[in-house]
Amino acid sequence: MKEKNKNEYNAEMTINEYLSLLQIKYDCETVYSLAKSLQQDGVTGFGIIPYFTLTAATILEMLSSNEIKLEIPYSARIKDIRMKLKIFEDGYSKSKRMLLAIDYLQNEIFKNQLTFSFMKSWNIHYNLGIYTNKDKIVIGNTQYNYYLLQDNRFLKKSLNEIATAYEISPNNFNLDEHVGKECYQYAYTCAQFINSIRSGLKSFDMPVTINSNKNIVDFYYADYNTNRKSALLPQGENGKAIFLYLLHTLSTMNFLLYVLNDYEKDDYGWWLKINYIVYYYSIHKLTDLHERFVQNKFMT
Asked: Among 89, 61, 57, which Cα is nearest to 74's?
């Protein structure tokens, strides 16, 4: 490389590193402000996890590319949950397998909570809860929340393998108090990591204060059984999978639109980024489903 080109390259890399650190600083300040403003409830708590995870993952990637070694707990889970903003996997067939795996696990968990064993075949239990705001707009659901805490690699296995794993150790799949504590600890670790980077970048560049709005959402909830035919739920494996695919896409998109975005006050790039990511993958999933309908002549 010629000396002039080398100097230009080094200058460009220095500028890139400076801008990357500046964006990390802005992202950390935004998340710090948002965390202080968040409404304290389970729906918001679950919904925000992928976005805090995204920030932690971005920091890890940017700093590790500059040969700064960072070791934090849950680093594998951070990568896994960050990918879940894609709303399952690329391609409907992979998504369908994971959707039905989650539905099966949730069905077994709630079925086994019935007081009497002979009632399990009655199909009277619920396995899906849908959250809405006061305008009855869907902004979340329990199966997607459950998905956030599961290992993607496990969910890609066949339903027979998943059923066998559940039969051997059913307690490993329950969203019990232990799992709730682990979920809280994971979110706390992410927030703690982001805040430590924020503190380390306090003196970098100019001081900045990023504000967030206070936001109060009235959440409403309804229970359903995905194995019972209703005006909402179609029968059959394919109908159920398509319904859940659309429900999870809608839940992800609407949580951002009707809950999270109302916290936005100052945007230094973080809000633009998360909106772009959610819109991009929502459109991608809907386009993928449309193409599948066309190819299989499901369109009328």
From this structure: 57
